[in-house]
Amino acid sequence: MSTSDWNPGWTTEPPDHTARFLLVSGSDIVKPRNGWLHAGEQTRLQDLSTGPVSLGTSGERPLYVAEISELPPEAEPVSLREALLAGEEAPAALLSTGLQVLQWWRDHRYCGRCGQETGLHARERAKWCDACGIPWYPRIAPCVIVVIRKQDRFLLAKNARVKRHFYSLIAGFVEAGETLEEAVAREVLEETGLTVNNIRYQGSQPWPFPHQLMVGFFADYVDGSLVLQEDELSDAGWFAPGDTPPIPPETTIAGRLIQAMEREIAGDVSGG
Questions:
Q1: How large is the average pLDDT for residues 248-259?
Q2: Whole-number pLDDT of residue 251
Q3: What mean pLDDT comes out for the span 188-202?
Q4: What is the 3-state secondary structure (H, E, C) of 95-109?
Q5: How many whole angstroms separate alpha carbon 132 and alpha carbon 39?
Q6: Does residue 2 register a pLDDT over 60?
Q7: Which is one GO molecular function term here (predicted)?
Q8: 265 and 171 in a common domain
Q9: Where are the extended beta strands (E) located within 140-265?
Q10: What is the rounded CA–CA span in Å between residue 240 and residue 253?
Q11: pLDDT over 90 (residue 271)
């Protein structure tokens, strides 16, 4: 079932038989035999354990995300990370939004201030507490991710907690009171022992693990020797364009940043 015509949006109206569903089991996407969406006429609302939550429309049909207690026949669970790293065939924006919205729905069943059960906001994608008179919106946690350049090489690092055998970039959460650029410099120093400057914005990507916004940067090496924060990184090194270990695919901001840095270095070398 096609997802190419997804139009993000929000409604408080319940689904009808024309609806389409992105179904989730735990932290996995429940993938039907064809496509990523399930037909409304084949989805029993009584089988849903969380939701349904509006995601907009698919074509002219209303689209919802929901958690289901048992897998439908011939469906398979696929982790969101596997789907996003698998290649271009996965609808990354839809899957990311769906999982993040569902996580928000789970997390804000009750008001975080008074503990009363929340309801729906009348006009916005938000949960509403009548007692406190406050909305609870989907949470966004800003993170920085950075390629560090040192002359004609750049830094790649292996995360100590990730089992996949690829090297990626230095990344971390922005702390209260920090600018994005300050977060880049702090994370680099904490995880690698290096100092950087010329920190420059490159792009961003929603990353729903569970509700992050990755903000990408380039930075230039200034000083220091590699001293790795062992609970974060198991290995790191300087690599030349075209001569790297396995890296994330271009469907991720890490993959795109790495490829953009390779092009920048190659252009400077050929131009110099």
A1: 93
A2: 86
A3: 98
A4: HHHHHHHHHHHHHCC
A5: 38
A6: no
A7: hydrolase activity
A8: yes
A9: 141-150, 153-159, 170-173, 195-207, 212-223, 233-239
A10: 19
A11: no
Residue carrying the six token digits 């509006």: 54
Please tell me the total count of domains within the chain. 3
Residue 125 above 80 pLDDT? yes
Select from 117, 139, 161 the last residue of a domain: 139
Q: How far apart are CA 244 and CA 246, in angstroms?
A: 7
Reported as type and span, the H/E element at residue 24 is strand 20-25
CA distance 244 to 224: 22
- Which pLDDT belongs to residue 191? 97
Would you place residue 62 in the very low, low, confident or very high pLDDT band (cuts 50, 70, 90)? very high
Q: Assign 59 a pLDDT band (cuts: 50, 70, 90).
A: confident
How many whole angstroms from its chain centre is CA 25? 18
How buried is residue 212: exposed, middle or buried, by Cβ count under 10 Å (0-12/13-18/19+)?
buried
Q: How confident is the model at residue 4 (pLDDT cuts 50, 70, 90)?
A: low
- Quick one: CA dihedral 181, 183, 188, 194, positive or negative? positive
Which contiguous run of DSSP H or E holds residue 78? strand 76-79
The CATH number of whichever domain residue 80 belongs to comes to 3.90.79
Last-in-domain residue among 139, 155, 190? 139
